[in-house]
Amino acid sequence: MLCRRSLLGVTTKCLRLSSTQQHRSGQPECDQAIGLLPAYSDADRLKILKTINESSMNQIANYDITKARATKLQNWKNRHGPLQELSDILYVEGFGLKVTTKFFKSLLAPPSSGSAQVGENRPKTARVAPFITPAMDEGQRSRIVSAVGVRIGVTSVSWARLKIGSNEAPCLLTHWQHHELNDKKLHLSELSRRCLYVSHQIPVADCYVMESPQMAQASSNPGSIDQQNVNIQKAQVSAIMSFSLMARSDGDENKTNNVYYMRRFLSARLFNHMVGTERVSSEDTILAMMRTHYNVEHQIPETEPPLKLHKQIDFPADLRLEFSQQERYQRELLGQALLLSLAFTRLVLQQDPQSIASVSRNSKNSSPSRAT
User: Fold this and answer.
1) How are beta strands 207-211 and 146-152 bridged, if at all?
2) Is 359 in contact with 269 (CB distance < 8 Å)?
3) pLDDT in tens, 214-227
4) What residues are paired with 210 via a beta bridge?
5) Which residues form a coiled coil (predicted)?
6) Helix axes 232-246, 188-201, angle to 10 degrees
7) What is the pLDDT of residues 227-273, one digit of tens each?
């Protein structure tokens, strides 16, 4: 029995040793990339190894590397110890030849003004991707005074038209409507006829805003989940409505774009309607907008700070009544159409700094605040 326990102990030590050695010699694809690493002088090699081995995860993340890769590198060091050679980093998950070369280059770059400790506490610059497609020039942005948000579903189309307020004036909701297509499997000829009818109901505006449709990615597996999530009829409705609305600008001498596509879920992110990857109800936000002092008979006492009216919406009484008489799912779709138009107004037309910051990539680290 004693000999058996001793044998198990020796076997366990051998397994631990072999698991460490596998990371050094068990990945032939990494061995091929080792010879492709740039040649570094002894001084540069020692500087890179010293920086990686003696820096914390947060310090490493300040260089040209993602936070996820910095975490994986730190976990690898905790398990296998410090790096002995530059090529050891290729055994860390996520570190290929291109990523490693860029990372090493940033480690050797001369430090900018300020020490590493200052850089560790300095927030990274927000990377703001384009909000709309196609891009809009400054001249056209200044000329737009009305916008229609068009929310397209599989069996319905909803829209809301906003008249953009000047200076400190609020936006005015002028039209608000929902139309049912009533069938999920319509022939293209019938679907085109119904969509053209809906297009004639949408009021004229300087521009029309839709959410970017989900695109089917190229896949060798036609039955993949990415392919199944793309609804054919919804894509057809988006294409027909886009063409019909674009045709309204044929008589425009400037030949400028009048249909814009906003990034998916951008309006939901702006108004905190995203839980994970799911969009939640917008009705509470719409009702809160209706309760502002600009839309009620009793004014807020003068002791309270004044609200910025250019961020508010004026809801006419007849459109409020129309909203309250709709079914719950119809109110939700009307709300999404309104928020789509409002998000376009704040992010693109007014370029509100607070709204832009709330949807920027580095805003995830900040405390969430509901846009109203």
Assistant:
1) parallel
2) yes
3) 766 555 555 555 55
4) 150, 261
5) none
6) 50
7) 555 678 888 999 999 999 999 876 655 567 899 999 989 999 999 88
- Asked if residues 131 and 266 have their Cβ atoms less than 8 Å apart, the reply is yes
Q: Return the CATH number of the domain spanning residue range 132-365.
A: 3.30.420.10
Which of 3.60.110.10, 3.30.365.10, 3.20.20.210, 1.10.150.280 is the CATH number of 28-109? 1.10.150.280
Q: Which tokens sit at 217? A: 């990615």
Residue 163 main-chain phi, psi, to 5 deg: -95, 120
Instruction: Name which of 11-25, 63-77, 128-142, 343-357 the model is least confident about.
Output: 11-25
Read off the tokens for 77. 């060091």
Q: Where are the domains of the chain?
A: 28-109, 132-365
What's the residue count for the chain?
372
Question: Do 116 and 59 touch, CB atoms closer than 8 A?
Answer: yes
Question: What distances in angstroms separate CA 157 from CA 61, 91, 110, 260, one per listed residue?
Answer: 46, 52, 56, 16
Mapping DSSP to helix (H, G, I), strand (E, B) and coil, where does residue 275 land?
Answer: strand
